[in-house]
Amino acid sequence: MAYQHDTIVPFKESADSKKKQVEEMFDKIAFRYDFLNHFLSAGIDVGWRKKAIRQLGSLQPKKILDVATGTAEVAILTYKILKPEIIIGIDISEGMLAIGKKKIETLGLQKHIELLKGDCETIIFEDNSFDAVTVAFGVRNFENLEKGLSEIKRILRPKGKLIILEFTKPTLPIIKHLYNFYLNIVTPALGKLISKNKNAYQYLNDSVQKFPEREVFINILKEIGYKNATCKTLSLGICSIYCGEK
Fold first, then answer.
1. Total-model pTM
2. Minimal CA–CA distance to 241: which of 188, 160, 190, 168?
3. Residue 16: what pLDDT?
4. Residue 234 near residue 170 (C-beta atoms within 8 A)
5. Which CATH number is 18-169+215-245's, of 3.40.50.150, 3.40.50.1820, 2.30.29.30, 3.40.190.10?
């Protein structure tokens, strides 16, 4: 059964598709994206990424696809932690990819990490091409969630693993209240001040609030055919790691 959800878009007044709007939004904020991520999360987002990547340690993947790679933060960390033979990152935003490519060149990792413009719903690679796939804070931006997750499953090798890192809503009342205040009031205001784009960070709040999480998301993974689907919450529930196997 398909998951029914409201389409949350960055620019409500625009007639463009969600995919086109997300591409435009990230192109506009790319120059401040890494700084704002670290600043707004007080730096704990780096620890979240490392924990997610380490879920792949026992698999020892040689070929990894990083979907919605953005500025290649996860791709670079993944290489440093796991040392696979090749990591390919795909993203729809040329602006984000340009910054990622500069970082990779500065680090001298061009032989190990390749960034390409690509859409999660029509991944260009053949079936059973990758040992693992990572998606950090990207599944909320899929225009068609189930289609994107199905495409990822298609290109995974048998027993390959999908790791998703995503925001979740905390359940403890006090933490939930503070979290909602921060996401709804503080984040858009700071986003506007620093990146000159309030819409992008209001969209962050809106998309987090509407995104299926925990058991609901695990059930979506299972319906698509992922095995051993799990959810591990981090930092009092404000972020979660989802795992699934082909």
1. 0.91
2. 168
3. 79
4. no
5. 3.40.50.150
